[in-house]
Specification:
Shape: globular
Domain Transposase zinc-binding: 8-98
Pfam family, one: Zn_Tnp_IS91
Number of helices: 10
Protein name: IS91 family transposase
Strand content: 15-25%
Domain Transposase IS801/IS1294: 138-298
InterPro entries: Transposase_32, Zn_Tnp
Number of strands: 14
């Protein structure tokens, strides 16, 4: 059982008293799903062993993307999908952040703000690439909503394959070594376009003290598959893994985080209901896609990506494009004879 879900179950009434006025339909839905997860209220899967005739029933997971018990496959699933698009190039991570003064918009209108962030970041990168070579970038954007201390801090991590593809010439331009774009120029365009988009799409008054300088970080993170493996671990961790919760008392929770400046591990202690709300405020609007592919990495561009892989294959016999892997079948071993069991059905509560 997840420590977070256990605390949520024990202190739900106090949480609703203290923070219920902040709950929207998405948060209520996530709470309900997490409290059902791996209980009989969620349902049971029925398993049968044809070797020793052992019959078993297991509680089902809720499948909610915010549930700490249902996130364990996310990293491996993303990495397997990216392997089919892997290129023998350097990869970059570009991070677009919002200043503190605008983070309140993530509470008042998260859907509009996050959609604007995706739209502006993708258009900015595409325009910078177009100015360089007229080629097409391939990149993936992942939305994060929390800081290291788990406060609300919306930002985007963008994984960019180093180089551009010119479809007219059928050529690959690898670009400069260890350089993608000027991050200061990116930051200026990011700021101007985000403010314009917020003014047009979000019915809110912008604060007067919006900083004149915003931050965009752009760095090379490695080459080929090792870079993707590093990024998958970095991008797909939950808001707070159980291993970082160090102690729980009758009234307080202590968790650890890595300080961004010193890189030292620090601890933070909060009242239980404040801790629960700290995590729940990061529930995303229903249907909002947190991970999005663009350019030659987009979902319907498999043939284009394969053509680019073949360019590298013709240039080097050391590289082999990775084929798409079939979806893995869920397998369970019999606890009695250790032969493979078969799932014979699922029962849901009426």
């Amino acid at each position: 059982m997840s420590t977070f879900i256990d605390l949520l179950r024990q202190h739900r009434h106090e949480l609703e008293q203290d923070y219920g006025h902040h709950f929207n339909s998405d948060i209520k839905r996530a709470i309900s799903a997490m409290l059902r997860c791996k209980t009989e209220k969620q349902g049971l899967s029925q398993w049968y062993c044809s070797h020793c005739h052992h019959d078993d029933r297991l509680t089902l997971s809720c499948g909610n993307r915010h549930c700490p018990q249902c996130q364990h496959r996310t990293t491996s699933d993303w990495l397997e999908r990216q392997k089919s698009k892997l290129l023998p190039v350097h990869y970059y991570m570009v991070t677009f952040t919002l200043p503190y003064e605008l983070r309140s918009l993530a509470r008042s209108d998260p859907r509009s703000l996050y959609q604007a962030m995706f739209r502006v970041a993708s258009s900015t990168l595409k325009d910078f690439a177009h100015r360089q070579t007229q080629g097409e970038l391939g990149f993936t954007i992942v939305l994060h909503t929390h800081s290291r201390k788990r406060e609300l801090h919306p930002h985007l991590h963008v994984i960019v394959a180093g180089g551009q593809y010119d479809a007219k010439r059928h050529q690959w331009f690898k670009g400069k070594k260890n350089y993608l774009f000027n991050e200061f120029a990116l930051a200026k365009v990011w700021r101007a376009r985000m403010l314009e988009s917020i003014n047009q799409t979000i019915p809110a008054v912008l604060p007067r003290d919006v900083p004149s300088k915003w931050v965009v970080d752009c760095r090379c993170v490695g080459y080929g598959l090792p870079a993707l493996q590093y990024l998958s671990r970095y991008l797909y961790r939950g808001v707070l893994p159980d291993k970082d919760i160090k102690s729980v008392t009758e009234n307080e929770v202590t968790f650890e985080y890595v300080d961004g400046k010193t890189k030292q591990r620090r601890s933070r202690t909060l009242p239980i209901t404040q801790f629960l709300w700290l995590i729940l405020q990061h529930v995303l609007p229903k249907g909002l896609q947190r991970v999005r592919d663009y350019g030659f990495l987009r979902g319907n561009a498999h043939q284009l990506c394969l053509q680019i892989q073949l360019l590298f294959l013709s240039a080097s016999e050391l590289y082999r494009p990775v084929s798409r892997t079939a979806q893995q079948k869920v397998v369970r071993s019999c606890p009695c004879c250790h032969h493979e069991m078969a799932c014979v059905g699922v029962s849901r509560p009426s």
